[in-house]
Amino acid sequence: MARKESITKEDIIKAAFLILEEEGIEQVTARKLAAKANCSTQPIFRVYKNMEELTEELFVRACDFFSSFYHDIQKQTVTPFVHLGLVYIKFAAEHKKLFQFIFLSEKRFGRSMYDLVNCREGFVNREIQSAASQGCRNPSELFMKMWIFIHGAACMTLTGDYDLGEAETVQMLKDSYQAFR
Alpha helix locations (H) across 80-165? Predict the structure, then answer.
């Protein structure tokens, strides 16, 4: 009779995600992961052929986490790009290590920054369509201007240089939209 597997793929990826969220991707090592999952390294390499394969699955999981985070934040305005900007900045502030892993790492597993922010649900596409429906002549160019501003603000949260509250952030994003428009 075959021995029952006590550590599942889901156990491993959950433990890896916890390390990622708490300490960053650099700390997701086989040894540290085995300790977190209460197993040896053998189950890890039974499930994944190498740590790169695990990292790619972790990347997908982190992107899905961002998408869920987006859906959990109530939309406060119809001004294009404001909700997306607010969510992105909040995500950077509340989930620093995940933000760094998804949006600041060179390794994106074939995805552009646009793909990462757009997600499967088309978050950016909807904002561009909204701007067009509100009379914006070049909504893609406006998105680029807004995105540089939004990404800069989000990165400032990582260094502690961004201290605006939610209402101030929303107003700043609305003002930026009007200025860039």
Answer: 82-94, 96-103, 113-118, 123-133, 139-159
Domain residues for the domain of 26 are 1-48
Q: In the block, which residue shows the tokens 């998105």?
A: 143
Q: Which of 75-104 are b and which e, b meaning 16 or more Cβ less than 10 Å from the residue's Cβ? A: eeeebbbbbbbbbbbbbbbebebbbbbbbe
42, 93: one domain: no
Q: Taking 70 as the threshold, does the pLDDT of residue 1 lie above it? A: no
In a domain, 105, yes or no: yes
pTM above the 0.85 mark? yes
Binning pLDDT at 50, 70 and 90, where does residue 109 land?
Answer: very high
